[in-house]
Every structure is written in C-alpha cells, then in structure tokens.
Amino acid sequence: MSFADAAQVRSAQTSVPAPRGHSAPIHDAKAGLAAVERATEALYEVVAELDQRALRGPSLLPGWTRAHVVTHLARNADGLVNLLTWAKTGVEHLMYPSRADRDADIDEGAGRLPQLLRADLDAACDRFATAGRELPDSAWENRLAHPVTGVPMSASRVPWLRVREVWVHLVDLDRGTGFDALPEDVLDHLLADAVGQYANRPDVPPLHVRAVFPDGRQRGWSLGAADATSPDVDGAAADVLGWLTGRRSGAKLSGTAPTLPRWL
Fold this sequence. Notes:
Blueprint lengths: L23 H24 L4 H5 L9 H24 L9 H11 L4 H21 L8 E3 L6 E3 L3 H15 L11 H14 L9 E6 L5 E6 L8 E5 H8 L20
Parallel strand pairs: 3-5
Antiparallel strand pairs: 1-2, 3-4
Helix pairs in contact: 1-5, 1-6, 3-4, 3-5, 3-6, 7-8
C-alpha cells in the first residue's frame, strides 16, 4: 500500500475473522496484518502532510526529530521482515545486526528530503506487507526469539509488534493523533501488551490499574507485587495507555499515578 493507495483501504475497519479449521496463531496473524494495514493508512495520512520544516521539528521522543521517527518506522518494518524470513526459512534472522547499526541507519536516513523519506517508508511498509501476505500459514506457528527480551514467541506475534510500533510512534510525531484515535480492538491489545511489559518487574510499584473503554467496558490489572491494600489508578483507556507507555503524565487519571520505569 502506497501513499496514493491509502485512501482506498478506509473500509478495512475490522479484524479478519479466523478461517474455519485454522489455528489460533494463524488467526492472530491475519488479524494483526489487518490491524497493520489500518495503522499504516493512518501513518501515511500524517506523514504526507509533513514538509521539510515539520520533519526537522522535534518529536515527543527526546533527541529525535519527526524525520528520525519516520526513518525508524521504515527500518522497523525491514527488521520485522527479517523475523518473518526466520519464520519462513527456519534460519535465524535477527531484526538488526546490532543496536549501533540500527541507530546509525536512523541517523543517516533522518537527513533525507521529505520525498525520499516518504518513498523509503512506503517501500519498507510494502516489503513488510508482502512478507506477511506471502508467509505460509504453517509458518505463523514457528517459534522466534522476541527482538527485545529474547524470550521465545510465535511468529504470529510479529504483525502485532508492527501495530504497536506504528501507533505509538504515530503519537510520537505529535501531529494531532493521540491514543484515542486507536481502533478499540487495537487499544485493547496494546493495553494488555503494555501491562505485560511490567509483569514481574521489581522496579514497578505495586498498584491496581483499571481502564475504561469508549463503549463502557472495563479491564483491570495488577502491577508489581500488588495486594488488597495497594492503591488504584483508574481512567479512560487511551489515557491509561499513554501513561503506561510514558507518553502521558497520568494527570488525567484518578488516584496517584506514579512515574513508571521505561516500558521497553
């Protein structure tokens, strides 16, 4: 999907249902790929409006311009293609050769002209979409190492890693898109993912977190070594996600929202 094609996928607003007879990993992967398409469409709409001055302006990430964020999203797509190649071939392919190489590629790419930045992002997103579309169904069940923790995971998680990356960094571009713009199924998934990042971490204060979704549905979790006496933090799901990911202060939440350690 290119920038020119983005407007044509407006109707893709629901997750793909599980094909009859297919396993849960395949269903998760197909739903994730549909969510990636929606997220990419939203990303294209924002990036298409960024001129040279806007791209050189600061993002919400310390030390990174918006051009850094756009370049990072392109390199992330290529890195996740490496993981899908691992799933397809059974031969280990890490996301990046090293963190230093990753950072150098981002710094180099961030200096490009707007049209080259957009072309790079477009091509990388297309490579990821093609790799996901062409991966055999059976390969989605193959095991890979999580790119951050190294913990074994199913290849079906790779599309959801891309969904998280696109939406969170779309917010980081600071161009009017917040977590309240997320489709509710994606908001639900990313909240559970963010909470999971804090599981079993001794540096996380004990507390109970409750998120209220736009449809009135509620979900709750316990962080740290929470017990019945631990404090509660409540709020709208988008505000809770912003706080958990370090993109919002927690001022809109009920209760005293502590400063959390870095989530990733």
